[in-house]
Amino acid sequence: MSGARRSQWLLLTTPGDLVWFDADSGTKRTVGATTVPAEPQPGVWRENVVCRRLHASRDGRFAGVVNDYGRCGEVIDLEARRVTLALDGGDYHPYTDPFSFAFTEHEGRTLVVHRTAWNRLDVSDALTGELLTLRDPGIDTAWTTSTVRSPCPAPRHSDRR
Question: In whole angstroms, what is the distance from residue 156 CA to residue 137 CA?
Fold first, then answer.
């Protein structure tokens, strides 16, 4: 953890557990689990393998788990042990790029910058899930490739509008 004074790590296990590991003391404890669903490997661009990727906020309170080369992800509050934001990056060729996701801080808040469509990044509050980029939240359906239901849990945003 970049904000820690000791050698502390947040780990994502293959089954999906989130484990806090203190390398100085050798102690570990499970602090949560992800519910990001597995996604099928597309038949094209096989060099891009759909896999989970873990992101951690600087202070270690939040974890972001996304499917690189997929479309699903979530933000987890590790203190409250709950998902604060479910993510869907859209269905327009998500297998071409890793899932766009980053934690940042602004005015004392932990924020999440995340993909919501092939050509769109939005910003949400990590604690509340509130969408902070106040614009039409709809996806440009001209670029939506199918009408198949999303494999992701419904995106959750506490929209201020």
Answer: 12
